UniProtKB/TrEMBL annotation:
It comes from the Bacteria. Residues 39-345 form the Glycosyl hydrolase-like domain. Keywords: Hydrolase, Signal. GO terms for molecular function: hydrolase activity. InterPro entries: Divisome_Glycosyl_Hydrolase, GH, GHL10. This is Glycoside hydrolase family 10 protein.
Length: 397
């Protein structure tokens, strides 16, 4: 008969408890289980001193090479020289130019090409908003919207990048500038199947700027009609401007998440002290406010003691408790090769401190700007990144 048991209820309960105790005694207890290993293995793809984006063949070959060497992330520039590197209705409406006019980029959507090939090869793609609020002085953007530009106390606007290139800076506090940048970013995250979007120090502006009419009016409205200090390094003046940029970043973060909740917000600044005091970018506060979900700190140092010192800063240690924190490593520049031994030592230092991984600046220098042969450098990277590993899970529920 179904449910029939010939023993009394109390006896049955005792038997059941004895069974459970026996099972617990002889069954091994798993106290904890380690998560599967992950690591950010990234590289920036740029159109400065680099040919990687200037032909379909170069771009596809680069993605395939990186996949073979067990890289798992690319950060391709999508906003540079005052142009987008994808067909942009937003840019065309503001500047009259929908895409970078370089002949090798015409008739192409480089971002979509990269996305297609990274998906095929298992890499994540996080477009990099490289120029941020910076623009060439002779760009259509700067010429057509002079009221958007900020300047120094003496009204000068030109900022020399590398003591050569004449740049100007859009005013991050100006509502029309904010709307333009937000529209560009939302356009990307809405129209492309990407894993994230990345900003860097150019999402601030040089500390000696900020004396334009709009900013002065805004400052006076909040300080009983007083003008800001003549000393552009005045701590309170630095803090006020940095906080205004943080307010905009908060609005931008919300706009990104509204357009595409699954897009990661990444930041690749310099160390905090330099970013804050040179570019008014307070990434430590951004991280504490939850405005960034991945942090790749550019630590381009030649001496290991200096490199390690930046990795061990308190704000770095604090951030890695909340989000994946990786380190940007310089793999070489034109006229400034970086030896493989330094790259290996820096990667080891990152791993020793349980940071989330690395990204290299920039693609060409991984193989072609060093003292070793390209074959030697590729073989070394394949060894350093063996076995293949996935990226950390970056988005929080």
């Amino acid at each position: 008969m179904k449910g029939f048991f010939p023993f009394p209820p109390l006896f049955r309960l005792q038997v059941w408890l004895l069974f459970l105790l026996t099972l617990a005694f002889f069954t091994p207890v798993i106290i904890s289980s380690e998560e599967s290993p992950t690591e950010i293995r990234g590289v920036w793809l740029t159109n400065i001193d680099s040919d990687v984006l200037f032909s379909w063949e170069n771009t596809t070959n680069a993605i395939e090479t990186l996949a073979q060497l067990h890289f798992n992330t690319v950060y391709p520039t999508v906003w540079n020289w005052g142009y987008t590197l994808y067909p942009s209705q937003v840019a065309e409406a503001v500047t009259g130019v929908s895409q970078d006019p370089a002949p090798a980029l015409q008739g192409r959507d480089v971002l979509q090409e990269i996305i297609s090939h990274t998906q095929e090869n298992g890499l994540a793609v996080i477009p990099w908003f490289e120029f941020g609020f910076m623009a060439p002085a002779d760009s259509e953007l700067a010429i057509s919207h002079p009221q958007w530009l900020t300047h120094r106390q003496d009204s000068s606007r030109i900022w020399l990048e590398g003591n050569v290139h004449q740049r100007v800076w859009l005013n991050p506090l100006h509502p029309e500038v904010q709307q333009f940048i937000t529209d560009l970013v939302v356009e990307i995250v809405s129209n492309y199947h990407i894993d994230g979007i990345q900003f860097d120090d150019h999402f601030g502006y040089p500390t000696d700027f900020g004396y334009d009419y709009f900013t002065l009016q805004l400052y006076q409205a909040e300080h009983d009609g007083k003008l800001p200090p003549d000393d552009f390094q005045n701590p309170a003046w630095i803090r006020w401007r940095a906080d205004k940029i943080t307010e905009y970043m908060s609005d931008l973060f919300q706009a990104i998440k509204k357009a595409n909740p699954n897009v990661l917000v990444s930041l690749s600044p310099n160390p905090q002290d330099f970013s804050f005091n040179s570019y008014l970018l307070d990434w430590e506060t951004w991280e504490r406010k939850g405005l960034i979900e991945e942090l790749i700190i550019q630590v381009y140092r030649t001496e290991m003691a200096d490199f390690i010192g930046e990795l061990e800063q308190p704000e770095v240690m604090a951030a890695k408790e909340h989000i994946p924190v990786g380190i940007g490593i310089l793999s070489g520049l034109k006229g400034r090769p970086v030896p493989l031994d330094r790259i290996k030592n820096q990667l080891e230092a990152v791993r020793d401190r349980s940071l989330a991984g690395v990204s290299f600046f920039f693609y060409e220098s991984l193989w072609h700007l060093g003292e070793e042969t390209p074959e030697q450098r590729k073989s070394t990277f394949q060894s350093l990144f063996s076995p293949p590993l996935p990226r950390p899970s970056l988005l929080h529920n």
